[in-house]
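Quick log. Single chain, no ligands specified.
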Amino acid sequence: MIGYLIGLPLLGAAVLLLGGRRTDKWGHLLATLLSASSFALGTKLFFEMLARPAEERAISQKLFTWIHVGNFHVDAGLLLDQLSICFVLLITGVGTLIHIYSISYMSHDHDRRRFFSYLNLFIAAMLLLVLGDSYLNLYVGWEGVGLASYLLIGFWNQKPAYATAAKKAFVMNRVGDMGLSFAIMISFVTFGAVSFSEIEKRAHHASTAALTAIGIMLLVAATGKSAQFPLQAWLGDAMAGPTPVSALIHAATMVTAGVYLCCRLFSVFELAPEVMQFISVTGAVTLLVAGFAALVQTDIKRILAYSTMSQLGYMFMAVGAEAYQAGLFHMLAHAFFK
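-> predicted structure:
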């Protein structure tokens, strides 16, 4: 059942991309319908989760065995718990609204079908990111989001400014992604596993140095995806893309991936207090820099971008202060009002 959350928008992307011009007349409607279906399924799973006792709410689903080498075993698996369901409803709910708005906004564009396929691909990748039950599953979604955002920001790449903005976003996100790659490697060496449940069990037996190294690398990854200092410059330029893309990336989904990463691996961060301080300082610096930068902008979309950057700084500061519940609440409220 959980796999359908990702499978529905992924099916839409595949049909629209492989179907070509034959899907021009109805492709946008199919993409919107599949995104809405994913939201409806997420809502159903949410209410089913509420009906169960708190300790029984997490559900895991194994799709297939991905890697099996010696003692190292990784399943392609999904985890739906209290944290991930919040992001599922956020991604599919706001994403569906953006799909609906895009039907009219992109009606003049002869490549509207391709645009909607990229939207569906983005939704599917973001859902995989928040539903993956291990570092490696999360990493596939993480890179998928980076690819989809590059395609969406540079959708009108016949204009040099849009192509340059897409390339800038792609390169700066790759810098952050190296942090996630190193965090996975250090975790494997330290714990011998990459699944979140195993890391949480074994974190208390790891050395402070290893936990600090993992935390720093995860923070680098989070700063890249969530446009925090010093990897924040791409978000303002990303507003050059179509307006629905601006809404999808800077309001609801992509920029919240860093906050999700910090909350998901909170068991590692809380054992490395120096990293928690770094997170708070990073958030504080970003909210001030972005807030002051917004004061001198004259373009409304760039003002919204710097506003988002600043609010994400508040979320990071809350996570660094061990108030991740407050950070999550602010993230959900911010995504819907933005």
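The two ends are 31 Å apart (CA to CA).
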